[in-house]
Amino acid sequence: MLFTEILKDNKIFLRCFKKGSFVSCEYLTAYFISNKSPYNRLGISVGKKQGNAVKRNRIKRIIRAAYRLNEEKIPIGYDIVFVGRNNISEKKMQDIEYFIKKRLIKKINDVNNSEKQKR
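Predicted structure:
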């Protein structure tokens, strides 16, 4: 990925969950918070309720691929954590890509604009 590093630190995951903004749909939730760095950090969390390890890893691959296709459009300088929800194993990459394009990018830009107005 061009502008993205992998997020592995549990402390940063928790910071995104507690202090970050989020956008969600019936199969996916994305938490994001500014990290004040020249790159994004991506984390993916899929619980055991989604299935065995093979299904969970497939879900992670699909989310990563959809993110990679839209990486240039996502503003830089954010920690983004995707959390898979109930029906995500039935969804295709196009559904997740649509969520990233239409909901996540729009919400990040809205939050970014409101932060600029506060300054």
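Summary: The chain has a mean pLDDT of 92.
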